[in-house]
Amino acid sequence: EAQVTQNPRYLITVTGKKLTVTCSQNMNHEYMSWYRQDPGLGLRQIYYSMNVEVTDKGDVPEGYKVSRKEKRNFPLILESPSPNQTSLYFCASGLAGQETQYFGPGTRLLVL
Amino acid sequence: AQKITQTQPGMFVQEKEAVTLDCTYDTSDQSYGLFWYKQPSSGEMIFLIYQGSYDEQNATEGRYSLNFQKARKSANLVISASQLGDSAMYFCAMSLLSSNTGKLIFGQGTTLQVKP
């Protein structure tokens, strides 16, 4: 089944404790991206990647890191999480040059 | 500025009836894509339908159709024969093919409730 997976789906952590949210897709998509969704602010792009080893900042990259060592994986790293990073996070993937992006199931993060 | 506007925060529809969710967009680009996504209460974002700016025919996917009116810059979603499982938040989104970020620009969403 073609899909984008994210882990964990739910996470409660404390300020300053490094965490990684994994994202994996099995559709051989070149393009991958991370969004966060917040009430009243909608979905905002954090980082994106056009292909392996090619990543760039989106609209709200502060406090986040990403890497793209393999085509299928695009982890989101929070080196020192803060409460304002409490949010619902989505990973998305798509074929470069085509528009449709498919989203993972989301990761709900609470930073205390 | 590139923007998506969904003016209906919430809507009700009777089961088995059709419903139209409004979406207007603002861009000066000539090449763009328009999408609708469904977000049920469980939180996932489900792709429903896509319309390219150069597509002359309205997109359809099963019970979903996109009423694309380019001159009015509108891309309304029509759901025919509503089902209880259609109750969810619906987002309209746009991508600009000239952009190298692949970013989707989302509207604020419309909550649809289907009544039995």
What does it look like?
The complex is a heterodimer of chains A (112) and B (116). With 112 residues, chain A is mainly β. Chain A has no helices and eleven strands. Chain A has strands at 4-7, 10-13, 19-25, 31-38, 42-51, 54-57, 65-66, 76-78, 87-94, 102-103, 107-111. In chain A, the strands form two sheets. In chain A, strands 2, 4, 5, 6, 9, 10 and 11 form a seven-stranded mixed β-sheet that branches. In chain A, strands 1-3-8-7 form a four-stranded antiparallel β-sheet, with no helix packed on it. In chain A, strand 5 and strand 6 (54-57) form a beta hairpin. The radius of gyration of chain A is 13 Å and the shape is globular. The N and C termini of chain A lie far apart (36 Å). Helix content of chain B is 0%, strand content 53%. Chain B has strands spanning 3-5, 10-14, 19-21, 24-26, 32-39, 46-52, 60-61, 64-69, 74-79, 88-96, 104-106, 110-115. In chain B, the strands form three sheets. In chain B, strands 2, 5, 6, 10, 11 and 12 form a six-stranded mixed β-sheet that branches. A four-stranded antiparallel β-sheet of chain B has the order 3-9-8-7, with no helix packed on it. Chain A binds chain B through residues 31, 33, 35, 42-43, 45, 48, 50, 56, 58-59, 88, 90, 92, 94, 96, 99-106, 108, and chain B through 33, 35, 37, 43-47, 50, 52, 91, 95, 97, 100-104, 106-109.
How would you describe this structure in keywords?
heterodimer; A: 112 residues; mainly beta; seven-stranded mixed beta sheet; four-stranded antiparallel beta sheet; globular; B: 116 residues
Quick summary:
The complex is a heterodimer of chains A (112) and B (116). Chain A has 112 residues and is mainly β. In chain A, 0% of the residues lie in helices and 51% in strands.
Summarize the helices and strands and which ones pair or pack:
The complex is a heterodimer of chains A (112) and B (116).
Chain A: E1 4-7, E2 10-13, E3 19-25, E4 31-38, E5 42-51, E6 54-57, E7 65-66, E8 76-78, E9 87-94, E10 102-103, E11 107-111
Parallel strand pairs in A: 2-11
Antiparallel strand pairs in A: 1-3, 3-8, 4-5, 4-9, 5-6, 7-8, 9-10, 9-11
Chain B: E1 3-5, E2 10-14, E3 19-21, E4 24-26, E5 32-39, E6 46-52, E7 60-61, E8 64-69, E9 74-79, E10 88-96, E11 104-106, E12 110-115
Parallel strand pairs in B: 2-12
Antiparallel strand pairs in B: 1-4, 3-9, 5-6, 5-10, 7-8, 8-9, 10-11, 10-12
